[in-house]
Specification:
By secondary structure, the protein is α/β, with parallel strands linked by helices. The protein is 47% helix and 10% strand. The chain has helices spanning 2-20, 28-40, 52-59, 75-80, 95-110, 114-123, 128-137, 143-150, 171-186, 200-210, 218-224, 237-244, 251-264, 272-279, 299-305, 316-321, 342-355, 379-382, 389-398, and strands at residues 66-70, 87-91, 309-312, 328-332, 356-366, 385-387, 406-412. The protein is globular. It starts with a helix and ends with a strand. The model has no long low-confidence stretch (mean pLDDT 89).
Length: 415
């Protein structure tokens, strides 16, 4: 078991270093980069923070489509199955995210019903989940995934124990959100107050009166100026700079605008991202807002198609480089390109263009409200693609996660 976990960790470390490290180790930028990769080498995202409903609209996934996507928390990958693709390749540099995805696939294929699956991955806070893991999943997992979840952490507890204590409060993101709640309470504010609203008007009033003042606190404004304070959100130093440049008033103003949109632009009853941000869980009750893969009506469909997903721990570009020409129809890059320099972007889009089937569609998000690719890709390469500017802006407005500056859709020209 130790050998399996060591191998996964080494692969994770090597991939993150290649993706993030740009500056000299002893420079300020170099130290920030290495602090980020240290934080990002663990489980980061128990839940993905891109709206899979918007993804599926933009990608127009349908029967026969071969999809390749960054795995992250897996909510996107599994939700895409509701659109009936022929296959989904889920890629991630982080072995912990791969272990989470493979656990979900094993659970879909081997747990008896939606109730058991939802208790495990929806509520994710019952002691019975550990018994289910030991009795129904443990022996069926591949060795690396089993070793990851069986590994003992502080005080001798196995990693799988997080599913008895609300997995959404764990991972780097979960701890970061928890720290934000603690910071708010120390200033006499309560983020969960937004969830008590019955209308969007009430949401706006509660946010502005009871939560927005946190961004006026001197310590909070100082904290937001420290790039490391956002590592828990998965924002590396290069992405932090782009985010901070989105407002002349600085990073605190940008974050305030994004949080206000999350709290006020969508009905909280229909926005599970708001529940995770302000309540640190999915909504209680018989019909909560959920990612498509967790919804009861989709359970049998997702279960029956779960063998179409394959999880691979490598970089996106490497997977494409080893793939045949015209292999994929749909590409979901999340915000990974915010990490990349011009050479990395060119390598990635060279392989996307080589492997793209006629009519291929690529989606991604950026921290800043900006066009990422013009001026950075060779003109001849970018000219192979059409940027759907109006549709991109509309999809960005529909994204309930609300944390990104822009959504982008590119479509391959011609045949």
């Amino acid at each position: 078991m130790r050998h399996s976990t060591d191998a996964v960790r080494k692969t994770t470390d090597a991939g993150l270093k290649a993706a993030v490290h740009r500056a000299r180790p002893l420079s300020r930028a170099g130290l920030l980069e290495r602090m980020f990769t240290l934080a990002f080498s663990k489980l980061v995202y128990p839940q993905i923070w891109e709206d899979p409903v918007v993804d599926m609209k933009a990608l127009e996934i349908g029967p026969g489509c071969q999809v390749i996507a960054i795995a992250s928390g897996g909510c996107n990958v599994l939700s895409y199955l509701t659109a009936d693709p022929a296959g989904v390749t889920a890629v991630d540099l982080n072995g912990a995210q791969i272990a989470l995805g493979r656990l979900k696939i094993c659970a879909l294929q081997n747990l008896p019903d939606h109730e058991t699956f939802f208790r495990f991955f929806g509520r994710a806070d019952a002691r019975a989940n550990i018994g289910v893991y030991d009795q129904r999943l443990h022996a069926l997992l591949d060795p690396a995934t089993r070793a990851y979840w069986d590994q003992r952490r502080a005080f001798g507890r196995r990693r799988i124990g997080v599913f008895a204590h609300n997995v959404y409060r764990h991972g780097v993101l979960g701890h970061c959100v928890g720290a934000g709640h603690t910071l708010a309470r120390l200033h006499g504010l309560d983020p969960s107050v937004v969830l008590r609203a019955r209308t969007i008007e009430e949401q706006r009033a509660l946010y502005r009166e009871r939560l927005a003042p946190i961004f006026e606190k001197p310590f909070v404004r100082w904290l937001m100026k420290q790039p490391a304070s956002l590592y828990g959100l998965g924002i590396p130093p290069t992405q932090y700079k782009a985010l901070a440049a989105d407002s002349p008033k600085g990073i605190a103003d940008v974050l305030s605008q994004r949080l206000e949109r999350l709290a006020c632009e969508f009905d909280v009853a229909d926005n599970y991202f708001a529940w995770q941000a302000f309540g640190r869980r999915y909504a209680p009750g018989p019909n909560p807002s959920l990612p498509p893969y967790l919804q009861k009506d989709n359970f049998e469909m997702v279960r029956n198609r779960s063998d179409r997903v394959r999880y691979i721990q490598r970089s996106f570009t490497e997977i494409l480089r080893d793939s045949l020409r015209v292999s994929f129809d749909r590409y979901a890059l999340l915000d990974a390109q915010d990490w990349m320099n011009d050479a990395d972007l060119t390598s990635l889009w060279t392989e996307i263009t080589r492997t793209a089937r006629p009519g291929a569609r690529v989606i991604f998000r950026t921290a800043a409200d900006e066009r990422l690719l013009p001026g950075r890709l060779p003109e001849g390469l970018l000219a192979r693609w059409t940027y759907e500017e109006e549709a991109s802006r509309e999809f960005g407005l529909q994204d309930r996660s609300s944390i990104y500056g822009a959504f982008h859709l590119y479509v391959l020209k011609g045949a």
